[in-house]
Each structure stands twice: as structure tokens, then as C-alpha cells.
Amino acid sequence: MTEHGFDLPPKAPPEVIAQRNALADQACHALAQAGIPVHRIVLGGESEGRPGAEVHVDPLADGGVLVEWNTSPELARAAVNLLAGGVDPSDPPFMLRHAGTVQTCMRAALLEILASARFHVEEADGHTYGSAVHVWGFRP
User: Fold this and answer.
1) CA distances (Å), 35 to each of 32, 52, 80, 138, in order?
2) Strand order in 133-138's β-sheet?
3) Over the stretch 100-139, which tens digit does the pLDDT of each residue have?
4) What DSSP assignment string belongs to 73-111?
5) Residue 1 pLDDT > 70, yes or no?
6) Which tens digits make up the pLDDT trace of 74-90?
7) How far, in Å, are 24, 29, 38, 97, 114 from residue 34 at the CA level?
């Protein structure tokens, strides 16, 4: 228990983190081979927000290797500004629909590219990881 009275989720042991780091490096290599701009975020590092695939390791016991797609800062900023101003969900503005389509298409592309490279992948839990791709390991 922490000083604030609640339990923090358990972290993965160092050997698991080492395995995840190796897997993350291999995923970066596979994406780079496919011509995808890829950025490796070191454990504990912050998102750089650069366009392309961002690969990082979640240190929690039930975490893993995650790949997220970043659009250009211009498109991301436009979507955030629209959301901050309030949006009618039944008729979202073009730029917000476009940003959502880009995220959906790029997640699908990342899933297919990594699966083709023999990684075991799936859509990550949306509540915890948003639109990320979860990389679990290699398929035989």
C-alpha cells in the first residue's frame, strides 16, 4: 500500500523488462524495414510526438510492448482544438473524422505489418492504451 492508501499495480521483474526491450527493438527494426518512420521511447521516457510509429515498453506486470501511431503535430493539434471546443458526436467536423480515420487505418496497417513479420499482435485495451497495438512476442 502507498502513503495515499491504495495499491499501485505490480511492476514486471527486470528480466521481463529486458525481454520486452529486446522485443521492442525487434518491432522497431521490422517497422523500419517496411519503411515506417519509427521512434523508440526508452522506459520511463515521454512521447516525443513525432509523426510515425512510437514503440515503448509498459513496465507493469501485465504490460508489454506497445506501438502507437502519431500523426503530424498539425493534424493532432487540429483534432484536440476541435474536441476542446465541443463537438456534436452525431456530426463531427471533417478534420476530426479525418484524424480518426488516419488513426484507425494506421493501427490496422501496423497490426498487419507486424503480423506479417511474425509478431503476435493485437489491438491493445482501448481504455488503458487508446489506439495502440500490443506486441506480445513472435509466432512460429
Assistant:
1) 5, 10, 28, 20
2) 38-40, 52-57, 65-70, 133-138, 119-123
3) 899 999 999 999 999 999 999 999 988 888 889 999 998 8
4) HHHHHHHHHHHHT---TTS--HHHHHHHHHHHHHHHHHH
5) no
6) 888 888 887 888 877 78
7) 15, 9, 10, 27, 9
